[in-house]
Each structure stands twice: as C-alpha cells, then as structure tokens.
Amino acid sequence: MPVCLRLPLTALLALLLAACAHRPPPAGAPGIEVVQAHAAQAAREARLAEVPGWRLRGRVAFAHGQEGSSAQIDWRQQGDAFDIRLIAPVTGRQWRLHGDPAGATLEGLDGGPRHAADAEALLAEATGWVLPVRELPAWVRGARGPGPAEGLAVDAEGRPLGWRQAGWQLRFPDWLPGDPPLPRRIFAERGKASVRLVVGQWEPAP
C-alpha cells in the first residue's frame, strides 16, 4: 500500500527554494560579474572619449624572444593623429613616428625618413620594435581598442585588470590616481613579442 509523505507548507517552500538556488544559469547566459565588468568598462570608456587629446611620458621596453631593448617615450595623441618620440637611454638617439590611420612617417633613420600605410609594420621593419600603434592609443588609457575584445576583468574599484584583443594579452598591474584613474603600467604580450610601458606623467593635450 503506497505511503503518502505529507510536509508542512513552510518545509515544502524551503525545498523548492533550495532547488532553485542550485539550478545552473541558462547555457550561454553571462554571469553577474561579467555583466558588471562590461558595464564598468563601458562607463569608463565613455568618460575617456570626452578627452580625445592627451600626452604621456615614460619608459617602454620591447622584447622578442631573448632579445630586448628599451627607450624613453613621449607620446602625443590628438584624436586619431599620433606623434611618438622614442629616445635611446645611452646614446640619446631619437626616432619620431607620426601619422594617422591613413599612413605614418618614421624619422631618425640613417637613410632619411620612411613612409608607409601601416605604422606598426614601418617601425618593426626599421627598428625591430613591435608596437601595436593602432590599438595602443586606447590601451594606454585602459580602454579597449577597435575590434572585439575577450576576457575582460575588472578590480573592486571598476578598473580593468586586462583582456585579450588583436592577438595581444593586456594587463594593467598599476594605476595612477585620477578621475578617471589612468594606468601607470601597461603590459602587452603576443607570442614571443612583448611591450611594457611605464608612464611617468599624464597630461591633457592643448
């Protein structure tokens, strides 16, 4: 003879709530932390977009496999136009890479200035330094560059910890105070190539 199990209404509700609490989210649904990270980053990028002109000064280190070098860097950005000066620490030799998405010019070479449509390829061919010029104007300010980005994570204050974009893994281990705060150190790695930028000074461009 079957036995009927009777439970008080409060106990039945408790069982139902426990079952719902352990139910996994629907497949493909982003977690709350992911949604919050993207919302914080979108708000940050909206504020940065209000200031299209800036200047940073600091040091940059390039590495590719076992080879590496470093330079002082003075970078001015005005909208899409960039003007990057690199100064060797010992000899004081200087290179100037300037242009916009339509093309770039590299000065300071023994054979005279060179011009090319791709600023990153131009610098790499002439000096061996790999610098993602297209994406860095956004990255150096802790913003995502053009194109898809994956793996975004933020800290407790809403500042980005890093993400993956254009084949590069980005990390932001240190920040300067401000409103919004700007990165003090930017690390980017792609395969055997890496770029480490340490910012000593930020200022808005006139």
Give a structural overview.
With 206 residues, the chain is α+β, with helices and mostly antiparallel strands. It has one domain: outer membrane lipoprotein receptor (LolB), chain A. Helices cover 21% and strands 43% of the residues. The chain is built from four helices and eleven strands, in the order H-H-E-E-E-E-E-E-H-H-E-E-E-E-E. An eleven-stranded antiparallel beta sheet has the order 6-5-4-3-2-1-11-10-9-8-7. Strand 4 and strand 5 form a beta hairpin. The protein is globular and about 55 Å long. The protein starts with 8 loop residues before the first helix and ends with a strand. The N terminus is likely disordered.
Outline of this structure?
This protein has 206 residues and is of the alpha+beta class. It contains four helices and eleven strands, in the order H-H-E-E-E-E-E-E-H-H-E-E-E-E-E.
Distance between the termini: 89 Å
CATH homology group = Lipoprotein localisation LolA/LolB/LppX
Instruction: Please indicate the count of domains.
Output: 1
Rounded to an integer, what's the Rg over CA atoms? 24 Å
CATH architecture: Clam
- Counted beta strands: 11
* Proportion of beta-strand residues: 35-45%
Q: Order of strands side by side in the largest beta sheet?
A: 6-5-4-3-2-1-11-10-9-8-7
SSE arrangement, N to C: HHEEEEEEHHEEEEE
Average of pLDDT: 87
Helix content: 10-25%
Low-confidence stretches: 1-7, 15-29
- Our count of helices gives 4
Major sheet details = 11 strands, antiparallel
* Assigned CATH class: Mainly Beta
| CATH topology term | outer membrane lipoprotein receptor (LolB), chain A
Q: Decide which structural class fits the backbone.
A: alpha+beta
